Amino acid sequence: MGGMAAEGRVLLAAPRGYCAGVDRAVVTVEKALEHYGSPVYVRKQIVHNKHVVEQLEQRGAIFVEELGEVPEGALVVFSAHGVSPMVHDEAAKRELRTIDATCPLVTKVHNEARRFARDDLDIVLIGHDGHEEVEGTAGEAPDHVQLVEGPDDVDKVQVRDPSRVVWLSQTTLSVDETYETVERLRQRFPDLISPPSDDICYATQNRQVAVKEIAAESELVIVVGSANSSNSVRLVEVALDAGADAAYRVDNAGEIDEAWLDGVQTVGLTSGASVPEDLVTEVVDWLAQRGFPTVEEHRTTEESLMFSLPRELRRDLKSSAST
Questions:
Q1: Cα separation, 271 vs 280, whole angstroms
Q2: pLDDT digits (tens, 9 = 90+) for 235-274
Q3: Which of 47, 199, 222 is nearest to 125 (CA)?
Q4: Model-level pTM?
Q5: C-alpha closest to that of 109 among 90, 148, 78, 135
Q6: pLDDT, tens digit (0-9, with 9 covering 90-100), for 189-200
Q7: Beta strand pairing status for 266-271 and 220-224?
Q8: CA distance 316 to 99
Q9: CA–CA separation, 131 vs 118, rounded Å?
């Protein structure tokens, strides 16, 4: 078959990229560096994006896995994913100055875990083993929480009283799969109690709805996001379930394999909740140079949510502004 194929098109999902909690966490580290000077220590990656972490490192942020690596009396920021009470206690013991950049929507789940544990319910937490958010939430009530990773784990759940069981979830899961897990739990425990509002956050849900819209029309979907970003990895799964022939996650344009474009007319493109928009723009440019010059944005909803900065930081910024 000779000659050029017809021009390809890119369907750009919206909403995509930064959510309110990520934006707040990244700005928190930037403002802390400006106000207190470096070094500012950050426990775990502030958000799950390689590029964001590298940029903050260049500005003087020092990322550590555990508080033991932070010198006594230093300033440490807790990441957007939240921490368990043990971590707060350890910080107090070592007299560290802390700024808590936990996303308020994660804090909401922590509060639910504490409340249901006080009521002595068995808590089934749906989430990914080892993910920082899950460790933080489970740490609020370790004696009451058991982790379920998906529908197949439901049979392993052991409870004291089947009429006193509640489910909670990580904020960044697949909406459809979580729903399936809850249904399986409900078959086992018909009196299963639900949290007052869904724990999967607005941004996770919106990005999944948006990628579903474009996936059905795309032979290939590219999701920009890092490998440890739960919500980005979920977007790949959601795109495949929604009818994309192929879907891949890349950290940046440099990770795209040209072979993916063979026989493709329409590329769907989106990004996870911790991804800066310039990384998406690079992919758009990369695709334009390879026969995909037309870009159509498909918007399923508007997002306007914003969170104010952590209280500790606001207080210090305010007092320095008034002097």
A1: 7
A2: 999 999 999 999 999 999 999 999 999 999 999 999 999 9
A3: 199
A4: 0.96
A5: 135
A6: 999 999 999 999
A7: parallel
A8: 11
A9: 24
